[in-house]
Amino acid sequence: MPERYPFLKGHGTENDFVLLPDPDGSVHGELSPQRMAERVRALCDRRAGIGGDGVLRVVRRDGGWFMDYRNSDGSVSEMCGNGIRVFARYLVDEGLADPSAPIPVGTRDGVKVLTVDGDLITADMGAPRVLGESKVAVPGHAWVARHVDMGNPHAVAFVESLDDAGTLLDAPDHDETTYPHGVNVEFVVRRGDRHVAMRVHERGSGETRSCGTGACAVMVAAAVADGARPTDADVAYRVDVPGGTLTVTWTTDDRVLLTGPAVIVARGTTGL
Ligand SMILES: N[C@@H](CCC[C@H](N)C(=O)O)C(=O)O
């Protein structure tokens, strides 16, 4: 009988994750990086596994919580905006965090603070870095894209129609000098005043139904393009994704707040 260990499944606007409680590192912590990547791929497999865009290993570190995030191909990323909101939902549901107080969670991009308001969870993603422009392309279309760093790398392209991005079965072409470690590519259309819609091809996961850091990058790129950087007051945009709606607020003290629903939908044990 293979060793079995606990898992949960959750999502934020249909960006879905397998959660692996491993507070003291005794369940997965001893695995080699290669073996852990294999395990992540097996768990995220939508036919033979549980299915997910990524894995959130829930670890205790330095007296607090740490989100050990991996994409569905087993690669690590610095940050996951929807994932950390689902992570906070898990902590609250399990009685491991007080929903009436700010919840700090460590990530490879430093500590992020989450707040809970009923069904909605907000992640303080910190300061965005608005960088230069480069080209992204899919078969038949190419665009200039804005480089926004949200702890992880994003290329944001404003397009005429979200259909122009095509099937997104393969990663869009991008400038490998600008993005030596790969990139998350967002395709954006305007829907109204401070209202946009996007699709995303995520590094390490393919097209997903939502991307929290991607929504933040899109909002920041749109606000810059609109001449709406926050000066006297915070600026909020609605960002529609295929899996729902997120609200992104850029504050006058240069923090980006990502707000949306996050739910746990299943739990069990697995030997994958
Ligand atoms: N879905 C995530 C982003 C996950 C990481 C990304 N694929 C990367 O490799 O940087 C989000 O909600 O932010």
TrEMBL record:
Pfam families documented for this protein: DAP_epimerase (PF01678)
Protein location: Cytoplasm
One Gene Ontology term from the biological process aspect of the record: lysine biosynthetic process via diaminopimelate
Keyword annotations of the record: Amino-acid biosynthesis, Cytoplasm, Isomerase, Lysine biosynthesis
Superkingdom in the source lineage: Bacteria
Top-level class of the enzyme under EC nomenclature: isomerase
EC number: 5.1.1.7
InterPro entries attached to this UniProt entry: DAP_epimerase_AS, DAP_epimerase_DapF
UniProt-annotated site: Could be important to modulate the pK values of the two catalytic cysteine residues, residues: 154, 202
Active site: 80, 211
Residues reported in the UniProt entry to bind substrate: 15, 71, 81-82, 152, 184, 202-203, 212-213
MF-aspect GO terms: diaminopimelate epimerase activity
Reaction it catalyzes: (2S,6S)-2,6-diaminopimelate = meso-2,6-diaminopimelate
Main function: Catalyzes the stereoinversion of LL-2,6-diaminopimelate (L,L-DAP) to meso-diaminopimelate (meso-DAP), a precursor of L-lysine and an essential component of the bacterial peptidoglycan.
Assembly, per entry: Homodimer.
Family the entry assigns: Belongs to the diaminopimelate epimerase family.
Name the UniProt record assigns to this protein: Diaminopimelate epimerase
Species name: Nocardioides soli
